[in-house]
Design brief:
It is built from nine helices and eight strands. By secondary structure, it is α/β, with parallel strands linked by helices. Strand 3 and strand 4 form a beta hairpin.
Length: 228
């Protein structure tokens, strides 16, 4: 069976990572969470005092990029690769609302995008990969055999994200999460470098009212059509 590249783009909290992990496991493909890479850079910037609610020292972050080393390590118990920053596992730290509040601003920086896109393209040279993010089908893998664009209403996405954070014990309000979702949507779709758009050949899936199983079945059918 031939191996292909599967690019999954879409808005925040649409379940891109969930469906990508399911597909990678089903197909025995490599899974790459590109969003985790941007979150890792964001976490690095926060830890070093380069960004907060009132301040963003973009030039110092750019100068520090050569000192940011990212890699994934597969966790057998979890079934996916965890994010490591300079050899430290930061998978839990990058999933907070605090990181979410700044990640879109970090992702606007062209130098950050260039560094991460180069790494992502290297990961997919042999195909047999599922990668999710904001510009996978448009920039990272413009020739991907299958491109999917995930969307859902802001309210549904905020509720999913809120439930997820509460389950982890995070002290957040639904209103805070909804504002974060809306703010990220605006920044992601209005940035100058690689804005979030639907690739010409992408198939759009609105999962506002789909269960995870219904979503997986629909996407797996698309994969089978492409693979033949």
């Amino acid at each position: 069976m031939k191996k292909i590249t599967i690019a999954i783009d879409g808005y925040s909290s649409t379940g891109k990572s969930t469906i990508a992990k399911q597909l990678a496991k089903q197909l025995e493909y490599v899974y790459v969470d590109s969003g985790a890479m941007y979150r890792a850079v964001t976490y690095f910037a926060m830890q070093n005092g380069y960004i907060n609610a009132e301040f963003f020292d973009k030039e110092t972050l750019i100068a520090s990029l050569p000192f940011i080393k990212l890699h994934f390590e597969f966790n057998v118990q979890l079934g996916f690769g965890e994010m490591f920053l300079n050899d430290v596992n930061i998978e839990k730290e990058i999933r907070t609302i605090e990181v979410s509040n700044f990640v879109s601003r970090i992702a606007e920086v062209s130098e950050v995008r260039a560094k991460l896109v180069e790494q992502q393209q290297q990961m997919g040279k042999e195909k047999g990969i599922v990668m999710d993010g904001r510009d996978i089908g448009t920039v990272v893998f413009p020739d991907a055999e299958l491109k999917i664009f995930m969307t859902a209403s802001a309210s549904k996405r905020a509720q999913r994200r809120y439930d997820e954070l509460k389950a982890k014990g995070d002290a957040v309000s639904y209103e805070e999460v909804l504002k974060n979702v809306q703010d990220r949507d605006y920044i992601d779709t209005h940035r100058d470098d690689s804005p979030l758009i639907i690739a010409d050949t992408a198939i759009e899936i609105d999962n506002s009212d789909l269960t995870r199983q219904e979503q997986f079945d629909a996407v797996l059918e698309l994969v089978r059509e492409v693979i033949g």
